[in-house]
From TrEMBL:
GO MF annotation terms: deaminase activity
CDD domains xref list: YjgF_YER057c_UK114_family (cd00448)
Gene3D superfamilies referenced in this protein's UniProt entry, alphabetically: RutC-like
InterPro entries: RidA_CS, RutC-like_sf, YjgF/YER057c/UK114
Protein name, entry field: RidA family protein
Family: Belongs to the RutC family.
Length: 181
């Protein structure tokens, strides 16, 4: 009696600084951090847009020859191209140790995925960046901005994460416009 219900959302006391983890999962056991909320929101938005704009016949999948990845590098749905998260692997599929090499490869891999879909970096509308060490942020920004025309920098979200596949230091996915120019 007088306790908090198991699935209740705990609200912070104003001014307490406790507002960082106010969202809870449905089970009420795992905190919903802002980065997890952003990731979930992006996934739901992508799925809803994907379902709304593209009947199955309008989907086009771009899978590199010989790819062993369990996903397409890019998918065109109507006027939109979704580029899967790209790591900084080189042409042989190896991940360099240096962050700047991974960042350059990541940008090149995004460009290749877009090219397969008949698009370019000029068509990118939005990017999501996941980085394992924010100390590399300024290095990434320099490489990222060099990949785009100054007047065509896309919208972007970024988050620090604890780990990525293959122990990569960076991953980036993008959404591009694929309509008529």
């Amino acid at each position: 009696m007088g306790g908090v219900a198991r699935n209740a959302v705990r609200r912070p006391v104003p001014g307490s600084g406790a507002g960082v983890r106010i969202f809870r999962s449905l089970s009420g056991t795992r905190p919903m951090t802002p980065s997890r909320l952003l990731l979930c929101s992006t996934a739901l938005l992508t799925l809803s847009v994907f379902a709304a704009v593209a009947p199955a016949a309008d989907l086009e999948y771009f899978i590199p020859a010989g790819s062993k990845a369990p996903y397409a590098a890019a998918v065109r749905a109507g006027d939109t191209v979704y580029v899967s998260g790209q790591l900084g692997v080189d042409a042989e599929g190896k991940l360099p140790d240096a962050f700047d090499a991974q960042a350059r490869n990541t940008m090149a891999n995004v460009a290749k995925a877009l090219q397969r879909a008949g698009r370019s970096m000029d068509d990118v509308a939005r990017c999501t960046v996941m980085i394992t060490d924010m100390a590399n942020w300024s290095t990434f920004n320099a490489i990222y901005t060099a990949a785009f025309k100054p007047e065509r920098l896309p919208a972007r979200s970024a988050m620090a994460v604890s780990a990525l596949p293959m122990k990569a230091l960076l991953e980036m996915d993008c959404t591009a416009y694929a309509g008529s120019r």
